[in-house]
Amino acid sequence: MVANFKGSQTFASLCNLSLAKDAIARGPFDYAFIQGESYEEARYAENPSGNTAILTAVRALSDQIRAASPSCKVVLEATWASTHDNYEGFGNFENYANLLAAGTISLAEAAGDIVSPIGTAFKDVRNGSSGINLYHTDDYHQGPYGAYLKACVNYLVLYKTRFGAHPADCGLDPAKTAVLRAAAEKAYFGN
Questions:
Q1: Do the Cβ atoms of 62 and 74 come closer than 8 Å?
Q2: Distance between CA atoms of 176 and 169, rounded to whole angstroms?
Q3: 92 and 137 together in one domain
Q4: What is the C-alpha separation between 83 and 14, in angstroms, rounded?
Q5: Residues 105-127: pLDDT tens digits?
């Protein structure tokens, strides 16, 4: 069974959120995907000693999950850099994307978690020549193609195998979804 703990909550609030506690108690889970506010990993990478509360919260949430589901693999989702609000104050896309990746890896290593490299796949698609828009109209959340890409990366985390000959396109343009699957494989198998 797979659990998904995310949203517009900080890691600290997810630790204390009764909904998250209720979901954790419903285990056992084989995998649990966690994600707090998407800028937290970048803030941690930018200043680990000044943001120890983020690490403490990630560890606490991961430990809560593993206490209820001892064999559960906790997966920290490396989110994508948004393009609004001056890149969350990180100045530019590249800096923000790089800080998100570095922070996620550091937090996951410290908490004993696995990383789902969603942000790396987003960055590769955004910087490529496909012209595929991954974002919702708010330039922050994922749009349909971004959701597909995220699902592809998480599929690879779960199954650790390349996509077969007839993968689902989920009603999206097959040429674009082929590009996204290739980006997901590059991000996952290249890390």
A1: yes
A2: 9
A3: no
A4: 25
A5: 999 999 999 999 999 999 999 99
